[in-house]
Each structure stands twice: as C-alpha cells, then as structure tokens.
Amino acid sequence: MWDLSRYKRDDSSLDHFSHPHPLTLIEIPEAVSRYSEGIAPCSGCKNHIWNSCYGCTSCSFFLDHACVNLPKEIERPGHEHPLTLVLLADPYGGSHSCGLCGQEERNRGFVYHCSSGCDFHLDIVCAFTPRRDLDYCQEHKFVKLKNSLSIKSFGFKCNACGTEDDVTPWLCTGCQLMVHDKCRSLPRSVRIRQHHHWINHVYAFACSQLPQGGNCTCGVCRSQLEADYGGYACPDPNYSFFCHVHCARDYICGSSQEYATADALELAEDNDNEDKVISSLHQTQEVQHFSHEHPLVLVDEEVIGKNDLTCCDLCFLPIITPPFYSCRVKDCVFRLDMTCARLVEKIKSELHPHPLIFGTEPQMPGITGAFRCDFCHRYSHGFSYGCEDCLLDVDVRCIKLRLGSCIHEGHDHPLFYKVGLSSPGDPGRCSACGCGSTGAFMRSRELRLLRCTPCDFNLDFVCATLPLKVKNHRYDPHPLYLTYRSYEGGKDTPPPYEFYCLICAEERDPKHWFYYCAECDFDAHPECLLGKNPHLQLESTYRHYEHPHKLTLVELAEDYHPDCHVCGSSCANLCLECTDVDCNFVIHWYRCNNLG
C-alpha cells in the first residue's frame, strides 16, 4: 500500500473515466522526488511517479500528468477502427499482446483497445511512438491536450520543427504527431534564399530522400539535423538539401500550402538566364554583353605584356591569365573576365529579397560612378547592382559570390550567408582579418558574413572577395598569392617567433590571411598591398560649383587631416583637393561634394 496522504493536496480535482472517485492533485516535495526511487507507480503506465500527480489516496490509485492527458480515442494507421483508451485491471486474464511490438508485459494499466470485435490492442508506448512513414496522413487532425501541467512534468519535442518545449502541444489523433500550436499551420513548401528550388516540409527526414542512417546537415546553419523530426527538404533527388524549420523562417521569400514536386520545380530566373549565357560563351568567340556597347571577342592566349597589369572593367579585379573578353573596337579598352561575362542583367540573389538590377543609379550623391557597397562597405568606381525600392548598392565582386553554398579556398567547408552577428557579446569577427564592427576596409556595425557554424568560422565580404593572386605589383616582381595561415599551432599555443608585414613593418597575426611570395620570402597585409581603397580611381578629376579649378580625388596620409572648406571639419582617408599647386582648397569627397 502506498501512503501519499501525508503530502500536500490541492483543492483542485478531476473526474477520470478510469476510476470511480474524484482524483485530487497531490504535490510531492522536490527533495523526496529527487532522492527517492519514485513515490508510487502510476496506475496507468506503471512508471514511478516523480513529481505531482492526481490520485485517490483511499484506493491507492494514482495517475501521472502524462496519463491524465492521454486522449480517450485515437486512430492508428494499419487499423481501420478507432482505438479507445481502457484500463486493464487484470492484464493476465487474457491475451493482451500489443499489436505493434507483440509484448504482453507492457499491457498493465492503460491500453488502446478496439471495441469493434477485432481484439486489437496497443500499449501506450507504441501508440505514441512517432512513425517514420508519416506521409500517409495527408490531413492531420490535431487536438489540444487539456492539462498543461503534464507538459511541465515531462516536456515534449515538436515533431514538426524538432525543438523541445514545455508549452501545451497539439496531438494528431491519426498519426500521434505532437506539435506546437504555431507548427500546425506550417507552409507545406517554401522558397528560401539559400536554395534555388521550392523545399517541402517533412515530419521526418527519413521520409524524404535521405538514406536510412545517413547524416543530415542543415543547409543553412550547417548543424546536425535529427532525422526523426521535421524540417524542410528539397524534393529533387539530385539535390540533397535539408534545413531546420527556424532556419527556413529566417530566410523565407515565398510560401505555399501545396507541396512542390520534383518534376515541377521552379528555378530562379537568374539561374536559367545564366545557364543560357554560359552555354553561349562555350559556343562562340564573340558576344554582345549587356555591360558594354561594343561586341567582345574571346582572348584565349597570352597578350598581356610581362610588365603590364590589367583589370576586369566590371569588377576591377586583376586578370592574371586568359581566357577573357576584350572589346573588338580598336580604340576602346574594355576587358571582361570570364566570371563577369557570365553575369546577367537582373539577378535574384540570397543577398536581398528583391531582384538586383545592373546599372541602377548609385545611391551615393555627388561623384558620378562612385558608390559604397552595402555588403563589403568599400567605396568603388564602376558598375554595381542595385534595388531602387530599398536604396541598396552591391558591387560586382560581392554579386559574384555564390552564397547558397559559397566555396572558398581558405576554408574546407561551404560557407553560408548570415546577417547581424555583431553584438557586445558576439562581435562576429572575421576569421581572416580579425575585424569586427570596425577596422580595415571600413567595416560596418551591421555585419554581413559568410559563416561555417560547425567550425565557428566567419568571413566578411572584403576578405571573401580578395584576389587570390596579385601580379606585377610594385613591391615584388613575382606574383603574390593569398595565403591563409603562417602558423598551424592551436589557439593556446604561441607561435615560435613574430611575424611582420614587410610593407608597413608592423607585426601581423600569423593566423590571419596575408599575401606571400615564396621566391622572395615577402609577406604583407592585404590592405598594405592593395591599398585602403583599391577599387576607387584615384586622381580622377571633377568640378565643384563654387570653385574655379578642377578637383582631384586623393588618398590622405594617416597623419594628414586638412580642414574641409565647406563644413570646416577635418578630412580623413579620402578628399577632393584642388589641382592648382597654389590653391589649398580641400573638401570631403562624399559629404560636401555637390559637383557641378
């Protein structure tokens, strides 16, 4: 006999079909429940009760919160009749083996019984084991569990999204799924920026094309997925793409209550167009590119002089080796590297929910053709993509990154686009340069990073778009290669000696990226080698409506800060100064440059 009468009883009570007397809520002290081996067995499941329960102390009949909340009737796949919850007072009075696992010893107390003469039983463990073949239940019938106290005693993991919670769940009476209220109405298919197909919601990844026992990694955050719980999966068997529900929510750009099928997938418009462009590049030696007014011809042999340095006129990155495209008009110098030649005029990118259009008027006023990229935060001349509705500018170098699964030589795993990691507790520093919200190349406080979550590796857009090779630079006659580490020791192991940049003569972190020439043993910071503003056309000339002479764009020395003649504050980094040597007129190049 189990005596629970000494424990505190609440005034609340309930009537339960399994017992003739009212059941009172009994509070069991934490110290007792923690250090004893259970107070009494639950009359429904025969498990020991560790927390509060409902009971009739005079009859020694007790039910834990889970059993109190069991639905009175369920439907189970594989059986045509409803199953009713009953209490078997004498489990050995007949054959009551479970119709799913075949065991008899678990049928002591509550079982689900078919009252239609089938003599079919399910023990409560098997009745609420989520099935791996959940696709049979096309229209789930969810009912809300009535007593929220039961969830606080054992909690639950949502079958739809895979997250644990202690709120009151909803139960599908057909397949026994247990889900959050908000997960009952998840869209059946969504479009997210990280994948070019519609992806479908599944209640278990084993129900999609994932092989049994196979590893399942989220295509957004790169952390492990649990195959027995829900998420989103690509229906195309050629693409093994899966992601968490919460990751899909963060990047959703379209949703539907219809499932997408493998033979009716909608590809992003820019991917179709790009495929056509790539196909045409392989078929002809001459193209008409949207970025230039004249035809471009393919250059597939070395025509650049040994001491020459040429750049792509679209992205301003150096062209090291052929092939590339060049303008066929004799007096027109326009060159296009192969990756820029594959770009299309209108792009749907993971960077932004709206289409980005080539040649949109830059949002930075003043100097024609100059703008600041909203992703790498560098100033540039030349071409950009933009969104007129959102006043957004993106330089071509950032557009060229494949953000759905960016592969970079500097890291072993794919990198995925993340926004807004910068905070006092999480500065979101770039692993390649160590910069957070401020630093080299004018970082912004709103960080946009490429990230590998399992490795805690971040890459900002400046470092992601650094040229892999710099040729014929004034500091070294040989090519300089982007190098990713000088020292392979662990985080707590100091390097055996100090490392220095041979341009600025300052110490550099051996675990940060740098440029290196093996023949000369020459190494340098990327900013020192390329300059603070490598994509601006310095020495360009302009006219100011209040000044008679031409102004030129110059980069200021770190210790030189002249006062602006328009606003009176000091200038730093860049300014417009008068080309007349006898005139000291200086203004801010982007703030006070209302050019006429």
From TrEMBL:
Every DC1 domain range: 17-68, 78-127, 290-341, 351-399, 474-528
Coiled-coil features, chain-numbered ranges: none
This protein's UniProt keywords: Repeat
Domain of life: Eukaryota
Cross-referenced InterPro entries: C1-like_sf (IPR046349), DC1 (IPR004146), Vacuole_Formation_Reg (IPR053192)
Pfam families: C1_2
PANTHER family: CYSTEINE/HISTIDINE-RICH C1 DOMAIN FAMILY PROTEIN, CYSTEINE_HISTIDINE-RICH C1 DOMAIN FAMILY PROTEIN
Stated name of the protein: DC1 domain-containing protein
Biological source species: Turnera subulata
